[in-house]
Amino acid sequence: MHNAAKLVMYGNSGSDSGKSALARSFVKLGNVAYLDLDTISWEQPGVRKCLQASDDLLNEFIAKHDN
Q1: Which of 36, 34, 31 is nearest to 3 (CA)?
Q2: In the 8-state DSSP scheme, what is residue 50?
Q3: What pLDDT score was predicted for residue 65?
Q4: Quick one: CA torsion of 35, 21, 24, 12, rounded to 10 degrees?
Q5: Angstrom distance (rounded) from CA 26 to CA 11
Q6: Do the beta carbons of residue 8 and residue 61 sit within 8 Å?
Q7: Residue 58 and residue 1: Cα distance in Å, rounded?
Q8: Which pLDDT tens digit goes with each residue over 32-67?
Q9: How confident is the model at residue 1, as a pLDDT?
Q10: Cα(25)–Cα(28) distance, integer angstroms
């Protein structure tokens, strides 16, 4: 049986708190999937993707990485 740890980091967007940098450092350790909410939330800065598109992207990520 494989036990996969899950880690969620969240906070205010654009807060320069280092969330993304810390998450990328975990990815470099290996075998860690990474998804930032900006990727699934925004078409471009200030233009929100429709909720269905965001939901679809999130579900695709979960399906691909759910082990």
Answers
A1: 31
A2: P
A3: 84
A4: -20
A5: 17
A6: no
A7: 25
A8: 888 888 888 999 988 999 999 999 999 999 999 876
A9: 41
A10: 5
